[in-house]
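Q: Can I see a sequence and its folded structure?
A: Here is a first one.
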Amino acid sequence: MAQNRKGIHRLMQHSDLCDIGKWEVIEVWRSIREHIPGLSDTVVYTTRHTCCSWQIIRGIDIRRVQIWMGHKSIQTTLNYAHLAQNHLLDNLTALEGGAAPRLVVVNGKS
């Protein structure tokens, strides 16, 4: 339980995108874990890690992922860069005059 609270506290500190309080997150997470048995040993940090990983895998640029995740340092976000398997191929395609990588629209802004 202490590990879970520590992860939630970290989540709340690093994100300007969250408008609910720390204890509300704890209660929601506790309720989710009670209703989904497969999550009984999952901590909030696992969901943050998955969110960051999926953004990189789906081609969202590092800087936007950094902002979304609330990472103070780009170095933290760069730890996920190895998941962007085709990033150099996208550059080559764009330089050769092919289609540039598609932009992902987030909240109506690209």
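Q: Show me another, different protein.
A: A second, unrelated one:
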Amino acid sequence: MQHLLRTHFGVKFALASVLVGLGTCAMAADTPAKENTPAQNRMAQCKQEAKGQSGDERKAFMQACLGQKKQVGMDKPAGSQQSKMKTCNDQARGKKGEERKAFMAECLKA
């Protein structure tokens, strides 16, 4: 009798494992492929341009290519919060305390 119970439990466990595996495969098939990030796109473009180069020449080219953010449109949009903050910070140099705080508030609103 115990052998029969163990076999029955083993069959149920195996069936459950197969169903979980199939469910996982079905979910994986439904997920769309991710789009490349801008950095991945830039890397692909630089690799394409570096074909035919090797060694130190390729290494120097890749470093220069990957360092050029504007080449592939990786720069921040002009109206982004980060670029506004940088511009306002540059303009607020020399101001301190309440004067700086008021200036920054006005500058960031614009």
